[in-house]
Amino acid sequence: MIESMRAYGYTLPGTLVTLAACLCLATHQDVSAQEDRAIVIGETATLQSTVLGEERTLYVHLPDGYEQSEEEYPVVYVLDGNLLFHFTAIILDYLHRFGRAPGVIVVGVLNTDRGRDLTPTEIATESSGGADGFLQFIHDELFPFVEDRYRTQPYRVLVGHSLAGMFAIYALLERPELFDAYIATSPSLWWDDRVVVRTAEDVLDRQSPLRKFLFINFGGGDSEYIKASTWRFAELLQSQAPRDMDWRVDFLKAEDHVTVPMTSFFDGLEALYADWRLPQETLAGGMEAIDRHYRSLSDRFGYEIPVPESAYNSFGYYLLGQERFENAIEVFRLNVRLHPDSWNVYDSLGEAYFRSGNDELAKTNYERSLELNPLNQNAVGMLKRIERRQ
Fold it and tell me: How many domains does the chain have?
């Protein structure tokens, strides 16, 4: 259980510069090789809602390699999708690229009447009180729409900020079966005399099972209403959170209502997948330890998570680093058998053969990698090195 209630601050520009620099370093080769191609983050879909009596627009981002595989993916649903979809998708792609998270489908839900949809009670002076209807829309129409069109795992994450952060917490309390994890930033828990906090006082029970993940962040620059109500909710979690609920509340002293999501979404998603990364000591334990790692993840997330291509690749390079060439080749060949349409597995096997001195098989695998990905500049360079060495 994560029960961290700590105060600290980030310098936002530094955070963003660091992330941007890492993204540039990670993608420089791909971008330079594909400079004439459009950079596409997602696609637009429309859903005619009977529940809400209107058309709803969605943004959908599919993980890298989706079209080349038959894999099924968890889904992250992002409220206020018109504002928050794009950088949430980029964060998840970044974490996935470096083995810190799985590939994920990201669905941004755009607003029509934000106040109506995201608030649980009606206030006479505002459009409000439609949260239960919006939850019904999510269950009856949004989930079937997404799950009929895309390959999904039975694991759903809800992400929201401000009113949408309050809605995420309300969804956890009222319809906990809908989502498995919740990220709520600067939640507007002050709404209607803290009605959601008062609901939590009645609903949360330390003795009742509730195997969910909840991550809440708010900032020093948030309103006093948000800060006071969120601290009260944090105290409530401290005393009443169900025994198997994984939760965390963080206070970001240097951030305000606008900047909190920029750090909180990264922090929340990283915390959700904190155990995803394959540690070096697990690689040292061999395939048995690697299998055990993914069995543990499967148990935690509630669906089968097979050993991915990236894990076999990491293990192969671990063996290469120890100059155990035959063992490394065996692992890379297994990866080729399991992922015959991946250009990267042939590139890795080619490197293992090259380093073991088998230029002919190295050349064969680099050529196959280039057939699958003509933009693989590493394979081009390695084929030139083989030619010179021969």
Answer: 2
Cβ proximity of 108 and 42 under 8 Å? yes
Q: Are 245 and 203 in contact (CB under 8 A)?
A: no
Is pTM beyond 0.90 here?
no
Please tell me whether residues 260 and 351 are part of one structural domain.
Answer: no
In a domain, 148, yes or no: yes
> Is 278 a domain residue?
no
In contact, 58 and 81? CB cutoff 8 Å? yes
In the chain (390 residues long), the average pLDDT of successive 10-residue segments reads: 32 34 39 58 95 97 88 97 95 93 97 96 88 98 98 97 98 97 97 96 89 96 96 96 94 94 93 94 95 97 94 96 96 96 95 96 97 96 92
Domain shared by 177 and 315, yes or no:
no
What does the alpha-carbon distance between residue 260 and residue 162 come to, in Å, rounded to a whole number? 10
CATH number, domain of 362, equals 1.25.40.10
In a domain? residue 179: yes
Using CA atoms, how far apart are residues 105 and 75, in angstroms rounded to an integer? 5
Task: Report CA Rg, the chain.
Answer: 23
User: Could you tell me the sign of the dihedral formed by the alpha carbons of 193, 199, 202, 204, in that order?
Assistant: negative
Domain identity same for 10 and 153: yes
What range defines the domain where residue 67 resides? Answer: 5-272
pLDDT at 1 (0 to 100) = 35
Residue 371 lies in a domain: yes
- Do 76 and 157 have their domain in common? yes
Predicted pLDDT of residue 7:
31
CB 363 within 8 A of CB 386: yes
